[in-house]
């Protein structure tokens, strides 16, 4: 029987099977950020333990950093300085790679890693952060861990892990103009539930995935964790190789040739069997926008807010449902009580059109949608237009490299002229706990990945959408289908 891509990656890194049923997996690279990494580093230092292979450990400053461009205060959070200082000092003492606040490579960990060529096909890569799955877009086995697991990985270069099940999601057909990878993943979660990929390593494949550029693939994999997956991954192909070649940490010369030969073996064999398979026809996907407080609370931007009692979670196109069931999804945020509470929290009426809902703020940022292609897409909508007066609009590039590239292309001028704040890089308004936030109950259309209660500030009402939808909504001041503005 053939092997899946996931089987190949797992097998390659399996050190031994443990008596308790877990597997000991070799870890190639560890990423840390100041919010959780500082805790791991301080705890290791207190226990007198050493990082085993410092050159394979990379530290970012992103979660609680000041994103006002002058960076006058390092952090916007009163207790933030301690995290930053602990990470800086811990990284320097252990000889780790550090992308500090004044480094031109600084940015959000899951943006920086692929950008620098650190995430590569065939590697295992972990970080105490749930969106590490983003990096599976390059064909790496990358997943989020806790900070005590991070300590274990730092000291031993291994981790004990329960082997996840495997799932394949095939995206067929073609995306319509104005529909993006963000819409693909929101649509998938809307149809199969926020628990739809529970416990699975989910391989995204099919012609519509192959047609995505690398940054769009990262957006798709980023939200695998919102699908409750162990991780998301995409088989490396010519686009992956072209993206990686020449990046600072990518192999060179004969090392590249050897790596490429291995990378070309990383795909699911034709006769590989998955524990579960889903198929999605991209021709059906419209721009998506969430209406509630779970990523599965999502509708077409042209649709109405659903009634609390109905459920739009289905599992009908699952070929095999060993690992998935509609019940899994409908027991959590999909249930009637959850939906009613979400409607109430969001201040929305069932049956009302979602388009036309007035918003207070627009946010373009995060590891989901703040790479250069996302900024270009938003700028294509904003060029020659202005943000609706009174609305607060913010653009926070995913890294300082993205910011610099955008400035070379004059995109910052487009954002500024439209009335957007143009920031330095960090997690910023993706994450209330980072110190910056929107106001009480403000309604935000956002390119981020989580719309939980109070995610972006006190009782904020977050609507997740693509950069095009966020930009179009910023212009009109109401939730807006971006397609008309994109075609003009
Ligand atoms: C702070 C960190 C642990 C957290 C995560 O793991 O995802 C954050 O990045 C988030 O997006 O909520
Ligand atoms: S941008 Fe948001 S989702 Fe991504 S790592 Fe930062 S806080 Fe988490």
From TrEMBL:
Does the record bear Iron-sulfur in its keywords?
yes
Q: What is its EC number?
A: 4.2.1.33
Q: GO BP, one example? A: L-leucine biosynthetic process
InterPro entries (alphabetical): Acnase/IPM_dHydase_lsu_aba_1/3 (IPR015931), Acoase/IPM_deHydtase_lsu_aba (IPR001030), Aconitase_4Fe-4S_BS (IPR018136), Aconitase_4Fe-4S_dom (IPR036008), IPM_dehydratase_rel_enz (IPR050067)
Q: Does the keyword Transit peptide apply?
A: no
Q: Which GO terms describe its molecular function?
A: 3-isopropylmalate dehydratase activity; 4 iron, 4 sulfur cluster binding; metal ion binding
- List the Pfam families hit by this protein, alphabetically: Aconitase
Its top-level enzyme class, in one word, is lyase
Swiss-Prot/TrEMBL keywords: 4Fe-4S, Amino-acid biosynthesis, Branched-chain amino acid biosynthesis, Iron, Iron-sulfur, Leucine biosynthesis, Lyase, Metal-binding
Q: Which PROSITE patterns match?
A: ACONITASE_1
Q: Where is the Aconitase/3-isopropylmalate dehydratase large subunit alpha/beta/alpha domain?
A: 7-477
Per its record, the protein catalyses: (2R,3S)-3-isopropylmalate = (2S)-2-isopropylmalate
The free-text function statement in the UniProt record for this protein reads: Catalyzes the isomerization between 2-isopropylmalate and 3-isopropylmalate, via the formation of 2-isopropylmaleate.
PANTHER family noted in UniProt: 3-ISOPROPYLMALATE DEHYDRATASE, HOMOACONITASE, MITOCHONDRIAL-RELATED
**Quaternary assembly:** Heterodimer of LeuC and LeuD.
* Protein's UniProt name: 3-isopropylmalate dehydratase
Q: Which organism is it from?
A: Pseudohalioglobus sediminis
